[in-house]
Amino acid sequence: MADEYFFAMTLKGKNSEVWDPEAKGAEDYQGGHKLIIKQALLGPEATDGELNVVQVEAMTWKDSVKIPVATLKAGGSNNQVLLDLSFPDPPVTFSLIQGNGPVHIIGHHLIGTPMDEFEEMDELEEEMLDDEEGEEGAEEEDEEEEPKTKKVKTATNNKGKTPVKNKAAVKNK
Q: Which GO terms describe its biological process (predicted)?
């Protein structure tokens, strides 16, 4: 099961920001790291009328790709954009290729289960399977020892309820 954390960064001027948790000495995780970007917006200090373009460099299944993902302009309705970008493999580099920002990038950082926890879960699953197999064998032995009883079928009406006899009608008979 993955843990989810808030992610945010700010781009100003011509600087670039790199998301690479593995380079920072993060633990080895089953399922690794995943970055999901949900929004890019201009800060209040952005210059009116200035066009700001955010570019991302990330790996595809084959090679690296650089592509603009957001174009923002202060002083109008285009000062924020909703995104749904998923980056399953670090590193990811964010750059302002035009404008001075600041551009705030917001999303989620998903982290898989640490490898040592994953190994412990495997051991627990194996123990649980062994326990279940032992219990099933014991249940089968219990079923063989119990005498079989007959079930009595009771009449029910069309609503699935057992009818109640009228005590007055029974007394008059």
A: chromatin remodeling
- Of 85, 36, 90, the closest CA to residue 59 belongs to 90
- Give me 76's structure tokens: 């109008």
For 72-122, how does the pLDDT look when each residue is reduced to its tens digit (9 = 90+)? 998 888 899 999 999 988 889 999 999 998 999 999 988 876 545 545 556
Query: Which residue is associated with the tokens 């924020």?
Result: 80
Angle at 112 between CA 108 and CA 113, to 5 degrees: 140
| 109 contacts 38 by C-beta, under 8 angstroms | no
CB-CB contact of 87 with 58 (8 Å): yes
Calpha distance 127→162 (Å, rounded): 47
Q: Would you say 14 and 55 are in contact if contact means Cβ atoms under 8 Å apart? A: no
Q: What is the pTM of this model?
A: 0.61
Q: How far apart are CA 159 and CA 16, in angstroms?
A: 71
Residues 167 and 114: their CA atoms lie apart, in Å, by: 70
59-68: average pLDDT:
88
